[in-house]
Amino acid sequence: MRIRRSAAHVLMHISPCPLCGTVEWQPLDNIHESRSVRTDGVVIAQPLSKFHCAGCGLAIRSTQSEDPAALYGEAYQLYSNRPGAEQFDAARYVAISSALRAAWGNRTAPKRVLEVGCGDGSLLHALKLSWPGSHIVGLEPSGSAVGFARTSHRPVYQGMIGQSLPTAIAGGAYDLIYAVHVIEHTPDPATFLMNSSALLAPGGRLIVTCPDGTVPHAELIHSDHLFSMTPKHLAAFAHRSGQNILLQVDCPAGAQAEYSQLMVCAPSGDNQLRRPPDQPHADALYRDRQAYLRLWKGLEADLLNSVRADQPLYCFGAGGWTGNIAGYCPQLWDRVVACAVDGGSGASVHGKDVLDYRTVAREPRQFIAVVNPASQSRIAARLTGDGHKVIRWPGELSA
Q: In the chain, is it the N or the C terminus that has fewer CB atoms within a 10 Å radius of its CB?
């Protein structure tokens, strides 16, 4: 089914594709008809409402009812809802820092650096260890994240690109500005790139990372991801915003997640979209996206078929994937007694207590591993080795 101009504009309020101008949009399946999940794990009472451009394959979310400044200013809690995550985050931030330094190249360390969407400042802190002589500051809309950063004495200021900037940030003249997995959350990627690059010093560089939408994966199921972009889409937005692309590569393994891309660019003064992104496989990408979303639509039934009704069900994990399951598999989540992670936390996630795994590992139990599917075989082997029954995810759902 293809939605043509009249339906797209009147019923779905979708404008022509910002990259290729096509007005033919193909609807992507909603996993749930009345709910979806944000990246921070919050379940909202809206379907995904995503559409695929029949011309170039760009995917967008058509319904954007929340004001970005309000959403990310206070309601967004990515940095305070992941019990036990600190044991994984330290290595991840080191990996991202290494990727950023490699993208900067073998030049003298930048004097002034700005991280856009810096969260609680953890990556900023990791990069400072590598570039101790650089003046590195962060910009973050979330008040709770800024508060955490301040308690750790990290130079993070509250604000958002495209809005009124704090005085400490607005002066610009940065040699390097970077944004890690931010651009896909913005209502207009080209404007985001243009406003960010306006803060660069002459000769400065802008580095952005975001999910690579070439292969459908978990980024597609989050309602706060407003765009799913292949490298060609990201490059087209960069050209539209007046950037010269200096480098486009895959994000190294461990530097955020699987299926990520990294782009380095600099202002060119030419903000013309030279040509629409060449996406000869848009139809195949649509089929792949639909197949992935349908796996998610059927996931709850598949998992419930394997759960023994006469045994309590425990969840191993308390991170972002618990939000995905709590939101898209609510009946399964109702069956969960508690979550368990190494070290525990004494906290709760989506109404379930988070326990130390050691306290529940003493006798055989029924577990579901709610972690990245790429890690599930390893976790399942560990749990099985400890004598537990493990509910397996479908093998096709690999990311």
A: N
- Tell me the C-alpha distance between 110 and 176, whole Å: 6
Q: Quick one: 358 exposed, middle or buried, by C-beta within 10 A (0-12, 13-18, 19+)?
A: exposed
| Spatial contact of 246 and 205, defined as CB atoms under 8 Å apart | yes
Nearest CA to 212 out of 261, 279, 283 is that of: 261
**Domains 75-267 and 306-391 equal at CATH topology level:** yes
CATH class of the domain defined by 75-267: alpha beta
Which conformational region is residue 183 in: left (phi greater than 0), alpha (psi within -120 to 50 degrees), or beta? alpha
pLDDT(6) > 50:
no
pLDDT at residue 341 above 60? yes
Residue 88 is predicted with a pLDDT of: 59
Write down the CATH number for the domain with range 306-391. 3.40.50.20
Query: 3 with 27: CB under 8 angstroms?
Result: yes
Q: What is the Cα–Cα distance from 199 to 186, expressed in whole angstroms?
A: 18
- Residue 161 to residue 151: CA distance in whole angstroms: 23
What confidence tens digit (pLDDT) does each residue in 84-103 have?
555 556 778 888 999 999 99
Q: Are 211 and 217 in contact (CB under 8 A)?
A: yes
Q: How far is CA 51 from CA 62, 170, 182, in A?
A: 7, 36, 20
Distance CA 263, CA 247 (A): 6
Domain edges within the chain: 5-62, 75-267, 306-391
Least confident of 26-40, 63-77, 210-224: 63-77
Tokens found for residue 102: 């490699």
| pTM of the predicted structure, to 2 decimals | 0.90
Per-position DSSP letters for 5-62, written without gaps between them: HHHHHHTS-PPSPTTT----EEEPPPSSSS-EE-TTS-EESS---EEEETTT--EEES
393 or 179, which is more confident: 179
- The angle, 0 to 180 degrees and rounded to 10, between the axes of the packed helices 189-197 and 231-240 is 60
Rg (CA), the chain: 21
The C-alpha angle 237, 158, 172, rounded to 5 degrees, equals: 60
- Give the rounded distance of the alpha carbon of 219 from its chain centre: 6
pLDDT at 181 over 80: yes
Residues with Cβ within 8 Å of residue 66, at least 6 apart in sequence: 75
